[in-house]
């Protein structure tokens, strides 16, 4: 900020009588004298400048409650500051201070004192500031803490990290109001039994010391919610850790652990568990019972596999398996559908399964430095994925130059590849090269429909829900046919071929005589051509029957080449994969979804998309309809609920009106 702009800023504060002024990051060597005219100032920020002193004039700012002089060049605490007796927050961090004057004891209202990054020992004078609740002495060169610190009975947060302490000072253990204690990056080899006095501790940081075991005394601090013991020399964790039932964050990274005790399963409130840089050869089953975990770090161990039971950790949002010896992505991980970050870099992976598309909430996927030559096309379905890193792999598909451009380029490459493959599908009828002869005849009376090889147990519910919503919205007319598992009949080269889709739609059919039940449908005989067919893939299907052109009479081939159905839809509720194909020039072409993941179905003038929730006490990934304005078509059960709510509201309005009339002396029950 230029000198003129600094003056303008001060002038603005003066004219508007603002109570806060920040002149930080301006390389000031002295405080502008105009500042001392702002006697109403309550907060003054002068951090990150080049001040070597503070003039006596600052004492005119008698209303100051917060003063930040951090990151300057002060070699001593200016005497003038100690006369600002209304100060409650004083920041003197990152100055080359070697001492604090006795006069600081005048600041009896100080509640926060920040002395990070100086060259201090704990001055006796500070221990008389009995209203202090926050004291930060980290990054000094402390080797001890005076006994007099026990006077600071109101301290709730004390930071002594990055010093030279060899043990937890006994005096600190008398500060019984402490809730947060930071002792990381010192040289401590033990923790005294007296720490058990700190019964109000919720956060204890002992990272980067020289502890060889978890002190039993710590396990008595039953109010702890955050415990950091990382970067020590621990070889085991005691069973007594089960006492810490309020723990939500436990960091045991960078130790020498080869196992984790079974008792850890009792820490049911754990949301974050960090075990990076240890010597674990397998994922302890005890961990997989911590069902509230949202963040699990197992990076840089010696894992060769991940147990099936990890799928129990359904609340995981971050899983870090970087730097292990995994050769494949376990199927169990693909069931962790709440994952947003998955780190598998620096392993020995040779492939990624198609089932990774189940991780629909994934936003970041790290696969660097493995042995991957390709990525699965199903990654296209991960619509929330914003970061995919693949460097350091011998990639061929997609090419390395595409992968370097990021996730959007990879998606576009895979989409084009998929569309090209579909467009190049050719008839592969083994016995005839000529165009087949197709005629339309009724289903023979003695024809027995074959069972589909794979049944999707969700099919009846999915089909019923689609039809129900269309009916409730008034889309179904008497001349239409919407059915499930009803045989579609064609005669191909004098052979009767029948396929029974999971759901199909015909816009107009010939009416049946009264009392006759429709047991099949033959286009041109029974009515118009089929407009839409839909197949629901099963978990075991693998797509063989429904999405591959398998002549002469596979479903894809039958719908595309024989019936020539304009819109063919496949849906896998297990992978949340919806694909819609339009018939173009005699071939099915995959049609992309919009930004909401929905696909336009022109025959019904509706969008089709995936919706997760409950219907008739059944929770799963449903297919649902949306109109052109983005309004969801309700099921009849949802409409009934809305109608009841409207009726209840109308009844309540009527009751309120009747009560108002009675207040006016009018009987609402009398006829007009």
TrEMBL record:
Record keyword Repeat present: yes
UniProt keywords, alphabetically: Coiled coil, Leucine-rich repeat, Repeat
Residue span(s) of domain Disease resistance R13L4/SHOC-2-like LRR: 195-302
Gene Ontology cellular-component terms listed: cytoplasm; peptidoglycan-based cell wall
Any Pfam family: LRR_1
Organism superkingdom: Bacteria
Coiled coil: 637-664
Sequence ranges assigned to domain Putative restriction endonuclease in this UniProt record: 485-611
First and last residue of the signal peptide: none
PROSITE patterns, A to Z: LRR (PS51450)
Protein name per Swiss-Prot or TrEMBL: Uncharacterized protein
């Amino acid at each position: 900020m230029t000198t003129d702009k600094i003056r303008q800023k001060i002038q603005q504060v003066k004219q508007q009588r603002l109570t806060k002024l920040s002149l930080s990051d301006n390389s000031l060597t002295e405080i502008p004298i105009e500042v001392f005219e702002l006697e109403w100032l309550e907060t003054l920020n002068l951090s990150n400048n080049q001040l070597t002193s503070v003039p006596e004039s600052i004492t005119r700012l008698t209303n100051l409650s917060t003063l930040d002089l951090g990151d300057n060049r002060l070699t001593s605490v200016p005497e003038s500051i100690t006369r600002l007796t209304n100060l409650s927050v004083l920041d003197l961090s990152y100055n080359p201070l070697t001492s604090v004057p006795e006069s600081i004891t005048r600041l009896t209202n100080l509640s926060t004192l920040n002395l990070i990054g100086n060259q201090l020992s704990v001055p006796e004078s500070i221990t008389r500031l009995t209203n202090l609740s926050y004291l930060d002495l980290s990054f000094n060169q402390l080797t001890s803490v005076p006994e007099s610190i026990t006077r600071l009975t109101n301290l709730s947060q004390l930071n002594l990290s990055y010093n030279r302490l060899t043990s937890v000072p006994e005096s600190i253990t008398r500060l019984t109001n402490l809730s947060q204690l930071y002792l990381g990056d010192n040289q401590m080899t033990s923790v005294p039994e007296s720490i058990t006095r700190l019964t109000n501790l919720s956060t204890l940081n002992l990272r980067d010391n020289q502890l060889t075991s978890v002190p039993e005394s710590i396990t008595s601090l039953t109010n702890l919610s955050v415990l950091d013991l990382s970067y020590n020399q621990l070889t085991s964790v005691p069973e007594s850790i089960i006492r810490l039932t309020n723990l939500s964050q436990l960091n045991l990274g960078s130790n020498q652990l080869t196992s984790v005790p079974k008792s850890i399963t009792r820490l049911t409130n754990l949301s974050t568990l960090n075990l990076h840089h240890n010597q674990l050869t397998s994922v302890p089953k005890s961990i997989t019972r911590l069902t509230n975990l949202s963040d699990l770090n197992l990076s840089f161990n010696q894992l060769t596999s991940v147990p099936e039971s990890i799928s129990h950790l359904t609340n995981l949002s971050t899983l870090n398996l970087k730097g292990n010896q995994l050769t494949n992505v376990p199927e169990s991980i693909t069931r962790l559908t709440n994952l947003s970050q998955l780190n598998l870099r620096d392993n020995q992976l040779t492939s990624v399964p198609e089932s990774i598309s189940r991780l629909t909430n994934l936003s970041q996927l790290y696969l660097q430095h493995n042995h991957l030559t390709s990525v699965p096309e199903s990654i296209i379905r991960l619509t929330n994925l914003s970061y995919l890193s693949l460097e350091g792999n011998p990639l061929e598909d997609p090419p390395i130059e595409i992968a370097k451009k990021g996730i959007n380029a990879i998606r576009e490459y895979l989409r084009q590849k998929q569309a090209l493959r579909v467009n190049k599908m050719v008839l592969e009828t083994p016995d005839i090269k000529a165009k087949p002869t197709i005629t339309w005849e009724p289903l023979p009376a003695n024809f027995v429909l074959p069972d589909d090889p794979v049944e999707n147990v969700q099919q009846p519910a999915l089909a019923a829900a689609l039809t129900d919503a269309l009916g409730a919205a008034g889309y179904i007319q008497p001349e239409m046919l919407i059915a499930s598992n009803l045989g579609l009949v064609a005669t191909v080269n004098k052979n009767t071929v029948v396929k029974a889709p999971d759901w199909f739609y015909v816009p107009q059919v010939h009416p049946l005589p009264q009392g006759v039940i429709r047991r099949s449908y033959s286009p041109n005989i029974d009515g118009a051509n089929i407009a839409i067919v839909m197949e629901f893939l099963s978990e075991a299907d693998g797509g063989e029957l429904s999405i591959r052109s398998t002549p002469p009479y596979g479903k894809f081939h039958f719908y595309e080449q024989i019936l020539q159905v304009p819109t063919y839809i496949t849906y896998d509720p297990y992978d949340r994969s919806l694909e819609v194909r339009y018939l173009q020039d005699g071939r099915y072409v995959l049609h992309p979804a919009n930004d909401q993941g929905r696909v336009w179905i022109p025959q019904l003038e509706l969008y089709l998309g995936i919706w997760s929730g409950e219907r008739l006490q059944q929770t799963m990934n449903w297919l649902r309809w949306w109109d052109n304005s983005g309004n969801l078509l309700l099921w009849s059960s949802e409409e009934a609920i809305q109608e009841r709510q409207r009726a209840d509201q109308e009844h309540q309005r009527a009751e309120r009106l009747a009560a108002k009339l009675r207040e006016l002396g009018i009987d609402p029950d009398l006829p007009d």
